[in-house]
Fold:
Amino acid sequence: MIRNDNIIDGKALSNTIKEEIAAEVKVLVSHGERAPHLAAILVGENPASQSYVRSKVRSCEQVGFQSTLIQKEVDITEAKLLELVDQLNKNEEIDGFIVQLPLPKHIDEMKITMAIDPSKDVDGFHPVNVGKMSLGLDCFLPATPYGIVQMLDRYKIETSGKHCVIVGRSNIVGTPMSILMSRKAKVGNCTVTLTHSRTKNIKTELLRADIIIAAIGYPNFVTEDMVKQGAVIIDVGINRIEDSEAKRGYRLVGDVDFEACKNKALYITPVPGGVGPMTVTSLLMNTLKARKFS
Amino acid sequence: MIRNDNIIDGKALSNTIKEEIAAEVKVLVSHGERAPHLAAILVGENPASQSYVRSKVRSCEQVGFQSTLIQKEVDITEAKLLELVDQLNKNEEIDGFIVQLPLPKHIDEMKITMAIDPSKDVDGFHPVNVGKMSLGLDCFLPATPYGIVQMLDRYKIETSGKHCVIVGRSNIVGTPMSILMSRKAKVGNCTVTLTHSRTKNIKTELLRADIIIAAIGYPNFVTEDMVKQGAVIIDVGINRIEDSEAKRGYRLVGDVDFEACKNKALYITPVPGGVGPMTVTSLLMNTLKARKFS
Structure:
């Protein structure tokens, strides 16, 4: 039996949210207010980073934001980059900004992140924002977790009292998701189990899950036999695997064996077109929020 | 069968650590350095707060720290209290300080906490410290979680690959413990399940635990039938229950039915004399650390 009614369409949802943001921007501007303004700093010529940043800038245009892309040579000094961050912190025309990671090795990423004014940290990477998230205070949520929360919310997926099993304990997805899914909130109130490379029997844990969040970066790690009938599956992985039939010689797969798990899932996100498109939406939502409170 | 060899003696361990700290202070002072200096702000006349603060000051004396107790009337304005915090931030003779909670209702506790210089925040309550903990960066850990980590470490309790079930999702114990027990660290690397009031079957979760951390504030909540043979049980609760035979008319019990669970446990903490005495030790360790990096 082929089912498609249980696929969470991240691309369509992202477009819907972008339309909502665009409508809000129109209202702002019609009241004589300045449109939200996002700046992005890109250091060096990493093709993946260039493509991410370009997509962020394009999304800004789509919703009527102003955007500024600041490109710097790969050999920029840490001091110069800190100076630039300081300028953006002080620039009242810019509501939020991001420094695209990874940075060249001679630059301390955490030092740069710590230098960003938390009220402009729309990536949600500054420890103050991470801490506020953990304390349940208002803050900028990091892009991927915020996107997942949006998905669960918009698809009206019940989370309260459910058992959520997270695979992977990274700082940018697994750990923040474990905090968000357990907090007292509309999307939240789950019993959360956080699993990782040291977990002894991941299959046993996953089979208990009402909601699976896979963020381990390993292609097709979650297989059908690890999934309970009726589980909600959120696949955060984006992995390239060789495919001689594909144009570029590879195709993208998630951390979940999508085809096999699809028929068991109450809801499942595809890769690509699932969590991915939602991350840019999160950035836009954070920038709009920064504009409102600036 | 009566067993006592599996009881984690928090009081004795706390004294051992105090002796180690006192020895370090002696070395510092013998090198002509200033002893660590902790200040505590106490607002109002809450008897429990007075007793906590007094015990903290006494512990400072025991280990050779300087201490300063600043008492303020219950009607101090928020502005005045912020001014005082600012003075302590700037005072180079003071390495760390705490503002004893709870504060009177006319004062915004988070505003006060946010005003403390994170490098002097030896309570580990500032969002920057909470965020750094979540990101696995060096920081001041909050007292109770730090005390528990110390206990597990000093008793050489293996945590890697174990299943740790936490009861309660508070900002000061449950949530930070879930982060600490899952991180990649000597005490850590657990598969962690965080349970709370919305968890559907806490017994089922607890029966799977190699390590139980109970921090829910409900007397004798964890009963023998919820505990697996050989589990390690850390009891964070301190609850008063009426006892007509006790001098004060009450006695202290934990969140765990100690007598019933003791014989099943590989290790168990008593109440009182378990986690409690470790929290002051954590504060001293944080203050010593603040002195070293000041």
